[in-house]
Amino acid sequence: MIAPWGDAAALAQSSGKLIEAAKTEGTVTVYSSVTVEDMAVLTTAFEKKYGIKVRVWRGSSENIIQRSMVEARGGRYEVDAIETSAAEMESLYRERMLQEVKSPHLADIVPAAIRPHREWVGDRLNIISAGYNTNLVKKQDAPKSYEDLLDPRWKGKLTIEADDAVWFGALVSAMGEEKGLAFFRELVKRNGLSLRKGHTLIANLIVSGEVPYALTVYHYKAEQLKRSGAPLEWEVLSPGIARFLGTGVLKRVPHPHGAVLFFDFMMHDAQALLVDHDFTPTNVKVKALDAPFTLVDPALVLDQGEKWQKLFQEIVVKQGK
Prior knowledge:
By secondary structure, this protein is an alpha/beta fold. Helix content is about 45%, strand content about 20%. Strands 1, 2, 3, 4, 5, 6, 7, 8, 9, 10, 11 and 12 form a 12-stranded mixed β-sheet that branches. β1, α3 and β2 form a beta-alpha-beta unit. α3 (about 35-50) runs antiparallel to α11 (about 270-275) and α6 crosses α7 (about 175-190). It is globular, with a radius of gyration of 21 Å.
């Protein structure tokens, strides 16, 4: 274990020595909120290339931050790198748990994915889209705007993720706060919103037909299911909302060189793998990031999160069903 940075920082610019030192450590521990199946693609490629075992603990972004903070406060330094949602990564930065990695691969990362403090970096962009069952909703009948959802035909057919206060806040802000809040109050009053926990669950419920139309699914999961032949289509209603997910290295880690190597891997090799599995990578040499979306600012999420959580609970959760 090392305290802030040590030799790993110097070796980050020397890939041969970094790999050699990481192989000596033999393993790297990662906490991630990506699905088990998608994470297995990344870890298998990493292990095959370097011969270094990746130990993964998978949890929600909320559980990841809770676990890592509890461990750190208890003097237990068990995790090397964390890959999860932007707001949680930014929270870890504010807790002074992360450190900058001066990776040569950052030159290829879209600037918007690199925070001013550079202590975590976005490795993929999560587009929050709407999705519907194509057996229940014909493409020509699908809404073209949020205002279309006010039509009586959608009464009892709409679903939203039960904890999407961040998306709610970003969308209302993009619409104009007064107009956005009025829209959601009217939508819930007229047609109702069914609440379900988990974006992946919602995508699967669309496929099964239990959910005809959902306002919040992750586009990559919807695209994966669509390409597998499932009766699911996704669409982005304007204004589109997207947020980064990122990777960061902890300040005190059991495998410092393996941690840096995994960070480099996520910024380079993993990017093409993400494309192959319908994610939106941030390395512009792999795929140009042409995203006409409103990007969720993780700092604002932390600063205004209580406000939006309260409004989400008041307007959507309490009035929903």
